[in-house]
Amino acid sequence: TEINLEQHFQNKIDNEIRIEPKDWMPEAYRKTLIRQISQHAHSEIVGMLPEANWITRAPSLKRKKILLAKVQDEGGHGLYLYCAAETLGVTRDETLRDLHSGKAKYSSIFNYPTLTWADMGAVGWLVDGAAILNQVPLCRASYGPYARAMVRICKEESFHQRQGYELMMKLAQGSPEQKEMAQDAFNRWWWPTLMMFGPRDAESGNTEASMNWRIKRFSNDELRQRFVDMTVPQAEYLGLTIPDPELKFNEETGHYEFGEIDWEEFWNVVKGNGMCNKERIDVRRTAFDEGAWVRDAATAYHEKRKQKEQQ
Ligand code: FAQ
């Protein structure tokens, strides 16, 4: 019966036994995974755009190769994640339709513009740094295909974060103009990066269920705090100033206290009204439409092979 199935399912979760695609699972678990995994996939694919903007303008061949490799990795991450979502019974077409119609979200961070070359450093250092903190615990998520995809993704993200920090270091140790560029990029990316972790715990409607199901292992605020504690010393090492006058170290708790995030800005971006939301979705829609012939050709080829095999 349903109750026994549900109990058996929760027992597996509580005993750290992975749930696999063909196992019974409650509909709400399936739904929340489809939501999170597909939104995560969309974030990877849309996340390629702000950086792709700089590939043709990278200042050296070495930097161009690094950036190309990073953006290509992100395409790969999106594809593993779409596949993981497909194991839950949604098609690629459905998830993409939801992205293009604005029904499905993707990370707020990718709706900010990349204005200078220093943004490539800030994105790698901060955005990928935040992504890793959030994703390492997801390697232990209860759903097998998601957890396994995360292992490789995290290894690649770690390279992404390091190249960003190294780029920032070069600028921070460069000419006064280069240092100023690094500080300017830091000023613009710091607060949006803190928003990546999602709303405050009190406003996070999905956390409780996701933690009971061991999809999430830490709350949004816990991970955000961990990010601040990790990043402040890295900024100090670069000689950059954290754009938060309220930031201070609390000796008693051993944590940094920080100012209030502009939640109105966060929700505004999530609702589709950020600086680049429209541009990002337009680019994705156009790419999908212009790629239709590739999908048609692949389908026709598959059909032809199937017919040959049957002969
Ligand atoms: N942006 O109840 P919660 C990357 C939505 S890293 C937009 O707390 P949950 C790598 C949330 O969906 C970025 N929407 O939700 C890369 C929910 O709405 P819904 C991607 C946000 O799921 C780096 C509502 O607010 N990483 O791509 C955001 O428990 C560089 C209430 O929130 C992942 O997706 C936001 N920032 O916690 C690529 C990681 N925050 O869905 C290229 C996996 C919240 O009910 C370049 N995802 N919302 O309509 C997660 O860990 C979780 O989904 C959270 C949100 C933590 C993002």
Automatic annotation (TrEMBL):
Pfam families in UniProt: PaaA_PaaC
Record-linked InterPro entries: Aromatic_CoA_ox/epox, Ferritin-like, Ferritin-like_SF, PaaA, PaaA_PaaC
A Gene Ontology term for the protein's cellular component: cytosol
Entry's Gene Ontology BP terms: phenylacetate catabolic process
Residue ranges crossing the lipid bilayer per the database entry: none
GO molecular function, one term: phenylacetyl-CoA 1,2-epoxidase activity
Residues in the signal sequence: none
Name of protein: Ring-1,2-phenylacetyl-CoA epoxidase subunit PaaA
Organism the protein comes from: Soonwooa buanensis
